[in-house]
Amino acid sequence: MRLLCFIDYLGSGGAQRQLTFLARHLKKSGVDVEVLTYHESDFFIPVLAEAGINVETVRGGGRFTKVFSLRKSIRARKFDVLLAFLNAPALYAEIAALPRRRWGLVVSERLAVPGSSMGFARFRRYLHGLADYVTTNSHTNRLLIEKAVPGLTGKVVTIYNALDLEYFSPLQGPVPAGDGRLRFVVLASHQLKKNLLGLVEAAHQVVQAAPELDFTIEWFGRFDAGKNGPGDTGPFEQAKRRIETFRIQDRFIFSEPTSDVAAVYRRADALILPSFYEGLPNVVCEAMACGRPVLMSNVCDAENLVREGDNGFLFDPRDPADMARAILRFAALSGDDRKLMGEKSRKRAVILFNPERFAAHYRRVLESAMRREQTIIPHWCESIPQSAIRMIENEK
Fold first, then answer.
1. Secondary structure letter of residue 128 according to DSSP
2. Chain centre to alpha carbon of residue 109
């Protein structure tokens, strides 16, 4: 099988990491893999080159000329199946397939955005009818796609993310003695959807309820203006002012993003992710694999990742009091109970994010697309969480 992987660029993002991971595994299993991009970025290029995978970038062109340049480049290549990751590459790949194509086509969406079953997002998804299959990494997004375009039901396959379970692994050897302070970490940019302000409110309520509790929350990330609107740093500045008003500056540490994320997870007692919505958040998957308990918003596929009171706690991101209750419940656990919770996270991660299962599932989809079959392919994981169903039912 000759596979062309198509994505916008090869920066350090989660989708880029997953595509790189998949390309390397498929190459190792004998698939002839090539990668095509249209923006310059070399973060993952050395990793792909080491695996013997060629990367080519189609350079230049405005918004409209880019469509024609990419279409020409794709149609001039010899491959059996094309896999396009993310919305814009999927759109370009679908346009390139018109008026007819000689190759299999699989497109992939990676984020479950509320409201995306309506409006322009719904219109865009009608073009997925040109593909053989659509993959996504959460049941929530699959249900949103099928709600937007019921005719795609059966063509959309949920495949959870994969991880390098050797790199993302618990700390080996004896655990260093701590100073009694609970350390929570957040790894996220300062986007509105990540809900920093809600976490600040929750931390204030924790301090009020248990002033003797010694804890810190370290947030690794930076402001991304493109997500909140040009120059709109308001929400982040508002959160910092609220921290000062509440006099909880000693509870929050803001750090730059780091590439050594496994070390960050291992030093923490638990990960917190207070987002209003997610798809299948990489940071939760990674923290679980590193043997950390997780406190996260009960949204999207959360209930397939975190089992309440087993390997973490879930909360309503729109209710700081509920978030505070989750933090206090975790703080009340003994050291042995927290350790057991982390061990359960690791066991669950090994099942859910197994790289061999991930690659085998994708290979099945790609081979079926190559043969232009209309086979119903099971999801991984097959369990549909109630948190996903609630989001679809509550969508207006």
1. G
2. 11
